[in-house]
Amino acid sequence: MKLWNKKLDAFTLSEMIIVLILTSIVVGLAFTILTLVQRHMEAIQNNLNQTTELNKLEQSLSLDFNRYNQINYDAITDDLLFSSELDSKSYHFLESYIIKGRDTFHIQLKTKTMYFDGIETANNKIDAIKLETTKAFQNQHLFIFKANDATQFMD
Predict the structure, then answer these.
(1) Over the Cα atoms of the chain, what is R_g?
(2) Are 89 and 102 contacting, i.e. CB atoms less than 8 angstroms apart?
(3) 140 to each of 55, 61, 132, how far by Cα in Å?
(4) Is pLDDT of 1 > 90?
(5) How far is CA 126 from CA 3, 64, 65, 88, in A?
(6) N- to C-terminal Cα distance for the chain?
(7) Backbone phi, psi, residue 78, to 5°
(8) Of 60, 53, 58, which Cα lies nearest the Cα of 107?
(9) Which of 8-22, 50-64, 138-152 has the lowest mean pLDDT?
(10) Distance CA 122, CA 129 (A)
(11) Residues 48-72: pLDDT tens digits?
(12) What is the DSSP letter of 34?
């Protein structure tokens, strides 16, 4: 009778446990890094959305400031009114957004300052507006103005 004294090449139980522990550490680190990357991507997306919203408001205000010849601000109702002989538009400022007709700009403003002929004014005719956003929008400033013609100074 022959005895099989051949030794089989295999991993020991302790080697397998060490491999499993190291694999679980690497997978845990990978998931942690994936979570960090996802948070950064969400922050970048949020920042892009806010910047886009702010750019849309700036573009809309710039177009309206240069399209209409009469611009009035009503401090009581917090409305910015644009009017010409043919058409009119209004912006209504609320705490967390701005409404223009059917458009809504989800922007929180810290301050808004109205100007006429370079002098700060609280009510009535204006030719420039300065908006400062809240910290959520990185305290950005918008300054939109209109070059006045002689009709602005005539009553």
Answers:
(1) 31
(2) no
(3) 11, 16, 6
(4) no
(5) 106, 13, 10, 15
(6) 124
(7) 60, 45
(8) 53
(9) 138-152
(10) 11
(11) 999 999 999 999 999 999 999 899 9
(12) H
